[in-house]
Amino acid sequence: EPTREAFLKISLKVMQNPPLEMFANAIISGWLVATMVWMFPAAGSAKIVVIILMTWLIALADTTHIVVGSVEIFYLVFNGTLPWQEFIWPFALPTLAGNICGGTFIFALLSHAQIRNDMSHEKKARAAEEAKKR
């Protein structure tokens, strides 16, 4: 019984956030998960450490994530505490949108950083060719 009460308390705490706050918090967790995935190739045998660290950071920051949060909210739904509609809104849609925005932002930022030097070299090469033509 204490376990059920604790899980109920944790799950209800998630639902206290308004949709805009869920969206904003989800951006952070989406960013952290995308960063974790980006770190995997360099992590080698430390991948499990990276997963634990990023999961810990998401929990520490008290952010919302669609996968982890769904478990908490489904508990409320299946327990009869929350109707299905409230899983969709105010939880799932803002959280999923925030996760996508956060993950897409970091992916775009890292991708741009990786090719930025190539782009500047290409621009310099084109400028040099234009100068030769004159």
Automatic annotation (TrEMBL):
GO cellular component terms given for this protein: plasma membrane
Keyword Endoplasmic reticulum: no
A Pfam family this chain is assigned to: Form_Nir_trans
A GO molecular-function annotation: formate transmembrane transporter activity
Localization terms from the record: Membrane
Keyword Signal assigned: no
Chain segments annotated as transmembrane: 22-41, 48-68, 88-110
Location, primary (coarse class): membrane
Name of the featured protein: Formate transporter
Lineage start: Bacteria, Pseudomonadati, Pseudomonadota, Gammaproteobacteria, Enterobacterales
